[in-house]
Design a protein that fits this description.
The complex is a heterodimer of chains A (about 625) and B (about 260). Chain A is mostly helical and about 625 residues long. Chain A is built from 19 helices and 4 strands. Chain B is an all-alpha fold. Chain B has 2 domains: about 140 residues, Cytochrome c-like domain (Cytochrome Bc1 Complex, Chain D, domain 2); about 90 residues, Cytochrome c-like domain (Cytochrome Bc1 Complex, Chain D, domain 2, Orthogonal Bundle). Chain B contains 11 helices and 2 strands. Chain B has a two-stranded antiparallel ribbon with strand order 1-2. In chain B, helix 4 packs across helix 5. Chains A and B meet through helix 7, helix 9, helix 10, helix 11 and helix 18 of A and helix 1 and helix 3 of B.
Amino acid sequence: MNARAARLRWARRWALAPGLLLLGLTLLAAPLLGQVYQPPAYGSDFPLIGSRNAIWIVAQVHLMFAAFVLGVPMFAVVTEAIGIWGKDDRYDRLSKEFTRLLLVAYSATALLGGLFLFLLVTLYPGLFAYLSEIFHISMWVYAGLFFFESATLYMYYYGWDRWKEGWAKLGHLGLGVLLNVWGTAVLFIANAWLTFMMSPPADVAPDTSPAMVQFWSAFANATWMPINIHRLIANAVFGGSIVAAYAGYRFLKSRTPEERAHYDWMGYVGNFIAIAVFLTLPFAGYWLGREIYEYNQQMGVTMMGGFMSWLWIVQAFLIGVLFLAANYYLWLGLGRIPGGERFVPYTKWMLAVLVIGFMVWATPHSMIADRDEVAAMGGTHHPFLGVLGLMSAKNTAVNLMILTTFLSFLMYRRANKIPTVSWAKTGTLAQGTILAVCTAVVIFYGIYGYFVPTLVRIGFSVYQVLAVLFTIVAVIGLDLLVMRKAESRGPIRWGEMPERSQYALFVLVITFTWLMGLMGFARSGIRQHWHVYEVMRDTTAHAATPALGYAAQVISACVVIFLLMIAFVFWIGGMIATPTLVAHEEPVVVPVRGTDPGPDAAPGLGLDPQPLPAE
Amino acid sequence: MASVDLKILAVGAMTIALYTTVANIIPQLESDLPPEVDLAAGMTPEQLVEIGGQLFAGAGGCVVCHAETPGARAPNLSADYQGEGPIGVRCHARIEGMACKDFLYQSLVQPTQHMVEGYPPIMPPADRTLTQPQIWAIVAYLESLGGEVTVTAADIPAAPADGAPEPAAAAATGAGLEAMGPAEIVQVECVQCHLYEGEGVELGPALDGIGARRSADELRRAILDPPSVVTEGYEELVGLMPVDFGRRMSAEQLESVVQYLSDLR
């Protein structure tokens, strides 16, 4: 036994020796290894779908959720404010109902954000190391802001019933505003990172060490603020459209007239906010496009006239659908407003304007065509379509579509009102004149644009936009005065909405979501084969920017994933719901502002707190 | 109630399918990587022309403005222009005594040197995104449009190992900025777009007396980030000055150029 034990000890010693030797060498070599170690530029390719698609899908779905959790607080605080100053409790409950959904949506957003970060670190370690070298301080602040944002959200939601009277209510509204401040700060920080990749400062070259890049010049780069504003507006639009679609679903599932009335009203409010804010989005997009051109002509040309030129045709198609669906919903809604029938005959002409505008906007012009296509068309531009494809025609079309949609809202707003002020006719005439002059200005510059050089023509779009913005503000201002103390033709019959109208709300939210994915591809795609434009090349097998058909499939996958997840969020939210709709035993008409259900209680365009049957 | 869910699903699926279909039935254009020019492979002129053609129509982005249509942003290079023939022919007559390929090369890396009347100065220097071999491949392609290809491997400097674009000035003048003093930089480089002591091109603001009009800090910014300092009356030219001009100099050179310009009073 002793001999055997000795052999074992001997064997163990010798077996241990190489291990100890290896360990010793490793320890000795560790500082050396630490010095020479360089993180790889790329990790292993993601299985099946590849690294690019993996990061694309996760980033896009994360962004959709981020838009939701940033857009809904905007919606919530606006509706809460309307509830406070309009003294209408329904707005307050609507606001609370959606804040509740935020709690679940926040978790989903954070989880997707974490997944996105891990994918970036493991699949693109070189890029992440580069960005974190420049932006590490803002990354710490970004993470820190989540604590404040989460704490504010919890106080905002859980304090709803505790702080519901007097100054405490205003304090609660202040929490909602603060929640938006944190959300906006988070958005702006993340935007700095992605816009840096798109438009790094001029003094950053391929051989510039990231440690030498000035933080603020990288942070506040050329496209940072235009993207901030564009996304801020788009998030508000998205939040409104999600609310409208949620209401549409609940409307279709309603079992009582009270429920139908409540969700019909909710759908209208959500859609109103989405479309009203959406009308300003083209102007923000125009600014962003202009900044891209100023930053780098070639990037701008690639975006509008290069391989991405067809993308804008698809975008025009989507926006055409948005305009049609939004107006269709409003026109159907006229049927539930006493007096609305007098506007119905005009809708066919408005439809004609929208359809023609849609067709003009979707007309291709500046795009790459191969020799066969050029031969088939008899030139790079079709002899007929070439004329309509110019920016003059497109700007004119989109401005007329915006004016038409504005007119739909105006009709909606005025439908059940009879003005009582002595100068009502003059006021209405003035409104009509402003609209007519604006239309003439838009068309004049549209036609004149064909007879001037390109640079002058581009400047005309500013005049068209200013004319439309002025008209919207002036006509609404006049309408508030003309309809002051107006008599009512009767309350809106909430709930008496055809079911097909609710499907328009689904089309709207799906289109907004798809459009978000498309614009994400556009923004990211114009960098082409650069991680950081003209600074850090993408040298992977996925460096080429895919064609639109392929991109559309990825975008659709993102939209489906997002919609399934958001449906899950709504379902979970429904499980913890406290009913926002408390039905009375007898359906009653609840007048707003004391005994007068009159339309002068309107806090804004078309948002008249009309009587509801039974709450 | 289940029928409502099915209808919603159907509307959603149809909407998404419609958009996916629309995006798939339009022409499919992929933004390819710029094809590499492998000089070690001993490329023939035909191969250079082929790659140059791919770059011209694709990653180079040339065809976007140099389209074959009236009203295009830049001159049509493949067709006759004012009776002078396509670019491969008319390049010989543009600058007296200058070889076609040199003219084309210079037009690519210093576009403002050879502006065609009636067209805006919107072309970015090609060496910001393309390597020297790729630029010479485009030159070969342009020569082939009606003319004879004279580009040879001897014209093409070897690309740096990391594939990064080389500085335009180094290739254009045969010497890098690093070898120049401030006066030389101003008198050789800046005058390509600015007038100075009666020499140069009258495109950007004249440099005479610039030190009295601009502070040293403004001059530094104007070099490093040209769009941030815009002279009144020159707003339309924003984006034209090479954004990499400042970074092609050492910090010491940059300061000496700023000092040189500040002293021009």
